[in-house]
């Protein structure tokens, strides 16, 4: 990948996170993360830039960068395909230090959420099966007897790209910017960093009630599969849910009770409520920060999301 470092520095210097159209170097948002915003920057059409405005110090950004590369390499070892990627740390005076994760850019129409929305039943289920078999590789990796590393994965449809450059398609996993993995049972991600994107007035309650749940759910095969199937509601394909449940139950290890429609519905209702509330509170926090405190709010929030 060809990355122009001075372009990236100029982009960060000229960026007003709340008024992207006033940005000195034009850019478009291609996706929103809970923590990162994902840009395409004019002048580089081949890459996406994931901006993490999280750090007070260079050393903290460098530690996150190392963790990112380690997690990416472990996912590859476990058998996943990742897009080409690189990182840069950008430090502009009087701003938080940003880590940029740069990935090869895929066409929006190759994202699996888009494919599942627009394809017929048999193709969509084939894609679901492919995704399940890739997630399954992670659990197999974690279960190797000699293994001291445990990987987590967020299996949502929007985290997968089915690309077919020449002929045969390949499934890529793109959501690598929030590494979650344990070494000898110790979580490597710093939960306080994940809390940075949450409103300050909510952090204590999230720390108390939700953080552990959010940090552990991606290690659980059944919860990751449940999340993926519940995702079909968000992608407006409830018609695929019963068949997807049958697929999941083929992959689920014997120690789990089979997944049921009731569990999927319950999970979906709860998850939708939590994320809708969370986004509403972040918008309130943005209002307080920019209008009342007259400070810069670093995160870029999506508009209304149909869940
Ligand atoms: N390499 C890419 N090519 C094209 N689009 C991408 C690429 N990476 C991300 N996107 C778009 O941005 C969306 C969010 O990206 P990603 O999954 O990496 O972030 P996220 O889910 O918000 O992660 P996090 O919360 O960890 O920051 C994707 O679903 C997709 O629409
Ligand atoms: Mg994602």
Short overview:
This protein is of the alpha+beta class and 307 residues long.
Q: Which descriptors would you attach to this protein?
A:
binds adenosine-5'-triphosphate, 2 domains, five-stranded antiparallel beta sheet, 45% helix, single chain, alpha+beta, three-stranded antiparallel beta sheet, 307 residues, binds magnesium ion, Phosphorylase Kinase, domain 1
Describe this structure in words.
The chain contains 9 helices and 10 strands. The protein is of the alpha+beta class and 307 residues long. The protein has 2 domains: 80 residues, Phosphorylase Kinase, domain 1; 185 residues, no CATH class. A 5-stranded antiparallel β-sheet has the order 1-2-3-5-4. β2 and β3 form a beta hairpin. The two termini are 35 Å apart. The model has no long low-confidence stretch (mean pLDDT 91). It binds adenosine-5'-triphosphate and magnesium ion (MG). The site of magnesium ion has 4 residues, from loops.
